[in-house]
């Protein structure tokens, strides 16, 4: 898998594995994307922490002033792959349940046992139909966007042709004005469709799993993490305890996916009231997070990669957390193949970097 870069930046792209689908990149233009490996540090959370929502469910971002067709193509391809994977996962689960029901019906004593499974099958079938309708709606929006883009390109060529010709004739001026009017109209239509497609991207549920950093993390250290994603913000603070656990004042955040924005992460070490040290400030690609199963991702915060931020990201293809219980069970029960980095020389005050993953 290769990671796309910001359109306005000239940076190198590194190919990474599935478990490394969340790429951190320095704010400097010359520095490349980093290869990231997943890990699971030990994290404890304060009681009563809840999912943070920095937006209302009816919130819609204003349409962009300038369309970004190349970026939208990349996001659309990633979104289609994610939806296809979602359909495959739930279809496999449906086939598994159907097989269990058929085997149970062979014995008349177990007929009553299939009733809960039958309800679960219907729930998954409804969810699959909803997914298929959602995918068809996204395809229709994208096709309409492509039509407006072709019309806009044609109007642009007409404007260019009339501008280079002799502007003295009245017919030429009228044709130029008509072409310019059409170009503006098609541009506005593209912006509206881009905004509408963005509202169909669902949600990213981001769960804080902790920091890891070899000897850089010691008991008593306090850190502040600030995430910025378009107009959405998430700030949380945490400290490293003596038992190598980490306590954070916030547990989870829900972000609305955006087409043209990248997720910015800033980590600051809080040493005293007047002495805060910025550990790192990176920008991350998000289009690879459209996946059917939860992903444990790691972000290199500093240049040497000695400080890493571990996050668990779950994508919900709909903008409301109202999936059927059966569908949610598929997400949590399925196993994702991940490769985890193992560090043999870790001080006792550092989070353990073992080859395992867990979902809270």
UniProtKB/TrEMBL annotation:
Using the record's annotation, list all stretches that form the FAM65 N-terminal domain. 16-359
PANTHER family recorded for this chain?
PROTEIN KINASE PKN/PRK1, EFFECTOR, RHO FAMILY-INTERACTING CELL POLARIZATION REGULATOR 1
Q: Name one GO cellular component term.
A: cytoplasm
List, alphabetically, the Pfam families matched.
PL48
What InterPro entries does this protein's entry cite?
A: FAM65_N (IPR031780), HR1_rpt_sf (IPR036274), RIPOR3 (IPR026136)
Q: What is this protein called?
A: RIPR1 regulator
Q: Which family does it belong to?
A: Belongs to the RIPOR family.
């Amino acid at each position: 898998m290769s990671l796309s870069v910001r359109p306005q930046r000239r940076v190198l792209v590194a190919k990474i594995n599935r478990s490394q689908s969340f790429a951190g990149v320095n704010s400097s233009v010359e520095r490349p994307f980093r290869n990231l490996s997943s890990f699971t540090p030990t994290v404890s959370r304060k009681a009563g922490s809840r999912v943070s929502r920095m937006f209302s469910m009816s919130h819609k971002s204003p349409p962009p002033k300038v369309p970004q067709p190349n970026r939208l193509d990349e996001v659309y391809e990633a979104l289609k792959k994610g939806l296809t994977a979602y359909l495959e996962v739930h279809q496999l689960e449906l086939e598994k349940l159907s097989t269990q029901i058929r085997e149970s019906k062979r014995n008349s004593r177990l007929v009553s046992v299939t009733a809960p499974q039958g309800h679960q099958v219907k729930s998954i079938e409804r969810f699959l139909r909803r997914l298929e309708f959602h995918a068809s709606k996204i395809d229709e929006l994208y096709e309409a966007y492509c039509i407006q883009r072709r019309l806009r390109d044609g109007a642009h060529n007409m404007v260019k042709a009339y501008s280079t010709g002799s502007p003295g004739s009245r017919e030429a001026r009228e044709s130029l004005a008509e072409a310019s009017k059409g170009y503006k109209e098609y541009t506005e239509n593209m912006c509206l469709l881009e905004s509408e497609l963005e509202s169909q991207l669902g949600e990213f549920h981001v769960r804080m799993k902790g920091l890891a950093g070899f000897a850089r993390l010691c008991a008593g250290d306090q850190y502040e993490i600030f995430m910025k994603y378009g107009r959405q913000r998430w700030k949380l603070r945490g400290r490293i305890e003596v038992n190598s656990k980490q306590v954070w004042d916030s547990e989870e955040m829900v972000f609305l996916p955006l087409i043209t924005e990248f997720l910015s992460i800033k980590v600051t070490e809080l040493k005293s009231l007047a002495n805060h040290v910025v550990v790192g400030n990176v920008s991350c690609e998000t289009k690879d997070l459209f996946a059917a199963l939860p992903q444990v991702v790691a972000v290199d915060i500093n240049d040497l990669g000695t400080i890493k931020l571990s996050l668990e990201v779950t994508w919900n293809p709909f903008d409301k957390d109202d999936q059927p219980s059966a569908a949610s069970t598929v997400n949590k029960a399925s196993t994702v193949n991940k490769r985890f980095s193992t560090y043999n020389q870790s001080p006792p005050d550092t989070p353990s970097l073992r080859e395992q993953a867990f979902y809270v």
